[in-house]
Amino acid sequence: MCERFGFDLNDSTKMLPEEVVPPRELGRLVLNRNTDNFFAETEQSAFHPGNVVPGIGFSNDPLLHGRLFSYSDAQTYRLGANRNQLPINAPKCPILYNAQEGASQMYIKRQISNYFPNLRDSNAPIPTDETPEANWEYAENKPITHGCPFSRGFHTFPGDKNFELSLRTVLGKVRGKPPTFYEHFAQATMFWNSLADWEKSHVISAFAFELGAVKDKEVRGRFINRILANIDQDLAQIVSVRAGVPYNPQLLHIDDDHPIRKYNLRAPIHKSPAISMGNQPYTPAGRKCAIYCCNGIVKSNLDALRAALTKLKVVIEVIAVSATPVKT
């Protein structure tokens, strides 16, 4: 993907401009009611990206892998080891639940083993690559599968052979960051180039304000001359004046062996107009409007106003000075 987009798609700090990959509407999510019991359905819900069915694996996104650990750790601390047995989190179909015992255990396990390999439960749970038909159980001449009803077990995604463009090796997963993550400024430059003048003014003021809280002058200068200067020199020069530090840019040196040149890392385009809020279409749809009513209001005028706002898909809230009915 680096050849096409100029960066690693697994790098969560990067973005795909709409001019390169246009947005596609995949569906519609409608929230049409509140929970019946806030504690049981909200406080006890345990979202976790690791809750997947066999056949779905995980990409090499390091942010995802961080969440795969942290979510499980947090939910175990918050709700206990058997959080997936709570009604709001429990699956709606029978599963092979490999956890065992612990507080609030509600499943009555009839299998003896929850580990692999074993000699008792037909060697289940078992990877698909190691599932000989001899290990199947039969009932009425039909095999009884354990776990996923559509396969004989689970399958683990194999390691990639190219380490430099992946977080995996042929020996399995490894900790590390691929060199395709080593470009930090091109997309920041694209973002800056895409802003309207009034948006750039906001960004400059924000940098100046935040740097004003940094007491160490050397730290302020290092941020401006090493970070901002590699994004846009005009930006760095203006902020340096506001922050009260000398402008002495230290631009990034890129030699032939640097990953930026080796993998042709870059921003997909120089400028993305879709980034600027000034280019976004304005619509009142979805906004909330309050109509203040008092005694003497003309009902026909109120009805006409509500009809006009409803046609524009504006959410209307009629309010008054008290709960006493308003006299028309």
TrEMBL record:
<dbReference type="GO" id="GO:0006979">
    <property type="term" value="P:response to oxidative stress"/>
</dbReference>
<dbReference type="Pfam" id="PF06628">
    <property type="entry name" value="Catalase-rel"/>
</dbReference>
<dbReference type="GO" id="GO:0042744">
    <property type="term" value="P:hydrogen peroxide catabolic process"/>
</dbReference>
<keyword id="KW-0560">Oxidoreductase</keyword>
<dbReference type="InterPro" id="IPR002226">
    <property type="entry name" value="Catalase_haem_BS"/>
</dbReference>
<dbReference type="InterPro" id="IPR018028">
    <property type="entry name" value="Catalase"/>
</dbReference>
<feature type="domain" description="Catalase core">
    <location>
        <begin position="1"/>
        <end position="124"/>
    </location>
</feature>
<keyword id="KW-0376">Hydrogen peroxide</keyword>
<dbReference type="GO" id="GO:0005829">
    <property type="term" value="C:cytosol"/>
</dbReference>
<dbReference type="GO" id="GO:0004096">
    <property type="term" value="F:catalase activity"/>
</dbReference>
<keyword id="KW-0479">Metal-binding</keyword>
<dbReference type="GO" id="GO:0020037">
    <property type="term" value="F:heme binding"/>
</dbReference>
<dbReference type="InterPro" id="IPR020835">
    <property type="entry name" value="Catalase_sf"/>
</dbReference>
<dbReference type="InterPro" id="IPR043156">
    <property type="entry name" value="Catalase_clade2_helical"/>
</dbReference>
<protein>
    <recommendedName>
        <fullName>catalase</fullName>
        <ecNumber>1.11.1.6</ecNumber>
    </recommendedName>
</protein>
<dbReference type="GO" id="GO:0046872">
    <property type="term" value="F:metal ion binding"/>
</dbReference>
<keyword id="KW-0408">Iron</keyword>
<dbReference type="InterPro" id="IPR011614">
    <property type="entry name" value="Catalase_core"/>
</dbReference>
<dbReference type="InterPro" id="IPR010582">
    <property type="entry name" value="Catalase_immune_responsive"/>
</dbReference>
<dbReference type="InterPro" id="IPR024712">
    <property type="entry name" value="Catalase_clade2"/>
</dbReference>
<keyword id="KW-0575">Peroxidase</keyword>
<keyword id="KW-0349">Heme</keyword>
<dbReference type="Pfam" id="PF00199">
    <property type="entry name" value="Catalase"/>
</dbReference>
